[in-house]
Structure formats: structure tokens, C-alpha cells
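Predict fold of Site-specific recombinase XerD; 346 aa.
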Amino acid sequence: MKESNRILNLVAEFLDCYAPMYITSSRGTIKNYRDSLSVYFDWLETEKGVTCTSISAASFGVDNLREWVKWLADVKGNAICSVNNRLSQLSIFLKFLGNKEPGWKHLYAEAKDMDRKKSPKKHVTGMSESAVTAIFNQTDQSTATGRRDLTMMVLQYGTATRAAAILNLKIKNVHLDDVSDPYIQIINKGGEPRICFLPQKAAAHLRKYISEFHGVTPQPDSFVFYSPLEAPGVRPLSHDAYDKRIKKYGLMAARQCSEVPNKPHSHQFRHARATHLIEHDVNILEVSKILHHAQLETTMKYLDITVDEKATQMEKVNGMDDPKLPRKWRNKDGSLKDVLKRTKVR
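Predicted 3D structure, encoded as C-alpha cells:
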């Protein structure tokens, strides 16, 4: 097969089959992959004169990628984070390309080694316990949508997980009645599975929700929170749809509670839960484990812990093995399963 035809066929296979099956179920993310490839192809055509019949593996060489990245920033005015995202999405396609054609594996290796500019991290606005409660209270519990939305928010806040983990949760990864301590198994940001034990109220909401939305015998591979535009359980609710619901409730809650931030979003529930655990005297090491941060310093920065607060937290850490100190942050047997039950989930 001609090289150009092989590449174009693999582009279609990547977008239509591989990415939806093995990378993500999010339509928005698939669209981002498609957009990044489209932008790169447009650049190849307009700046390099590459066409459908002349495109080759060499078109994805590192020199071209460097020029493209510079063009995105200087000509198109893309922000650093947008440029990095475009390059990362194209790199994932190149990894797929190399897996299909071993002779092209170097393309991904070269793209992966390219320097990325560091962009300033977006600051996550804090949210008080009163603000969280006010948002929860806006859901209309007389409607199925309202009951679903409350369950999603209570579950995310209670487990301090990312929204993607909740939205991609499947029935087979929920363990409520077959264990002594209810838990869910999620996929973290790095693609690794991990267990999240559920606070009592979060477990109660989830149990009631599954009974209502999935019936007596739920299908194991069904998404727990699914899109109403498809057959039940087939496709997860999109991240955009979830955030739109939160913004709606936030706007309503702000009329009653001045502590509700402007345009709240899903990640603020994760940030808020971690902050509230610290406020309730849960040890910073434990909070770091709950957030699944690889480094304690990441948790410190994430929660905007000041120098003085850091010293206080480190005193707790340094004294955690002192038998005279009460072990507020762990059980007698050293397990972690009850840590998230320290504060109430409203």
C-alpha cells in the first residue's frame, strides 16, 4: 500500500476505533484529538505544501514538529498550555502509528523528548463547607436529574477524586453490599486503578441511585452516570454536561450563600474536600494519599499551604509515631479506609 494511503487509513482507525476503545470514552477528548490532527494537517498543507498524496512518515519528523509548535505560539497566538496539549495529542497518535508500523517508532520517541514550555498553573479557587452544602441543596430531589446530580457531586466530594474518574465509573467497579466497607475502584490520572473507600452518606446516595437508574440487576459494563442521549449505560455523561449542571446550581446557590465561588466547576469539589480534611485535623500525609499525589510537596502547593501552615503540618508528620499523640489520622490497625469518614458529607 502506498505510504500516504497507509497513514490516512491509520488516522481514521485511530480516531474512529482505537481512541474511543482504548484511550477515552469522552466525545470531547476524541474531538480534541481530531482537532489537533486537523490543525497539524492544515499546517503541513499551507506551510509545507504536503497533500493527501504526498504525506509520509517524514511529515511527522521532529523538525516539522518544532516548527509547528513555534507557529502555533507565534502565528496563531495559542497559549503555552494549548500548545503543549496539541503536541501531546499528536504524540499519542504517533505512538499509535509506531505500534502499527515498527519502522516509524522513532517518531513518537522524538516527539516525546521535545521540550515543553512551562505554563503557569491555574489557581483552584477554594470552596467552603457552607458553599458545598449550598450547591448540593439546589438539586431538585423530586426529579430524576436532580437525584442523579446530587449523587455525582456527593460522590466526587466524598472521595476527593477527579470528575473523570466518577464519570467513567462502571457498575462492575462499585462495591456496596458485597463488602463490609463500601468502595469504588477508579482509574487515576496516570491510568492506574485504585480503590476509594466511600463515606457512609456517599455510599447511601450511590446505592439508591443505582437501584433507581440501573434496576435490580445492573449490567456490569454499564457506566454508572450515563448520557441521556444514548441507551442507558452505554456512554458516560460528558464532563462538559457535568460542569454545566454544577455552574447552574452554583448560580442558584450564590443567591443564598455569599461563599459560593463564581462559576464553580467539578474540580473544586476535589480541592474543597482536601481542604476540609486538613481543617478537620486530618494529617497532610493522609490527604496526600487520598489525592493520590506522588509527592507531598504537590499537595502543599495544591492546597496553597503557607510556610507557617507547612511547619505545623510537618510537626504533625514528625510526631505521628509518638505514642503520646492521639492518632487522629488513622485507625488503630494503620488502615486508611475510614479516613474519608472523618467529616460529614452534606
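Strands lie at 174-175, 183-187, 193-197.
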